Amino acid sequence: MEQEWKKTLQQGLEDEMNSAVQYTQLAGQYGDIAVKKAFLGYAMEELRHAQKILSMFEEQAEEPDKVNIALAEQEDLFLSLVEYLAKEEAAIFYYKVLQELEMRTETKEICRLIKEEEEEHLQKIGALYQRLKSGELHGDE
Ligand SMILES: [Fe+2]
Ligand SMILES: [Fe+2]
User: Fold this and answer.
1) Which ligand is nearest to the CA of 124?
2) For the whole model, what pTM was predicted?
C-alpha cells in the first residue's frame, strides 16, 4: 500500500474514533433521555465507520498505527455542536475524496454510503441544534 494511501486511511480512522468518543461525551454530559439517545446513535454510527475503515486496511493487508483518542473540552453544548457540525462537513468531504481515489468498486460504494450517513448527521445535528436552542428539546439534564 502506498504510504499516502495509508496515511489517508489512518486519518479517517482517527477522526471516526474521536467523533464517536466526543458524541459519547456529549451524551454523558448533556440532554434528557431523547437527546442522549440521539448522541449515542451518532457515536455508534461513527464507530461503524471506523470498523469499515479497518476493513479497508485489511483489504490492503495493512495494519493501522496507534490511534490517539482525545477527550474533548465540552463546556458549552452549543459551541461543541457548532464544532461537530464542521467536523461532519469535513467528513463528507473526506469520503467524497476517498471515493474518488482509485480503489475497488465495492470500497467506493462503502465510501458513498458512509458519505450519505455523514450528510444525514450534518442535517440532523443541525436540526437538533435548532430544537435545543428553541427549548423544544432539553440540553440540560
Ligand atoms: Fe463518520
Ligand atoms: Fe458523522
Assistant:
1) 2
2) 0.94
Separation of 122 CA from ligand 2 center, angstroms? 7
For the stretch 88-94, contacts whose Cβ atoms lie closer than 8 Å and that sit 24 or more positions apart, written own/partner, are 88/118, 88/121, 88/122, 88/125, 89/122, 90/15, 91/15, 91/16, 91/19, 91/118, 91/121, 92/118, 92/119, 92/122, 94/11, 94/12, 94/15
Q: Which ligand is nearest to the CA of 121?
A: 2
Which residues have C-beta under 5 Å from ligand 1, the single-atom ion? Answer: 16, 46, 49
Judge: domain 3-133, CATH 1.20.1260.10: yes
* Span 94-132, pLDDT tens digits: 999 999 987 788 999 999 999 999 999 999 999 999 999
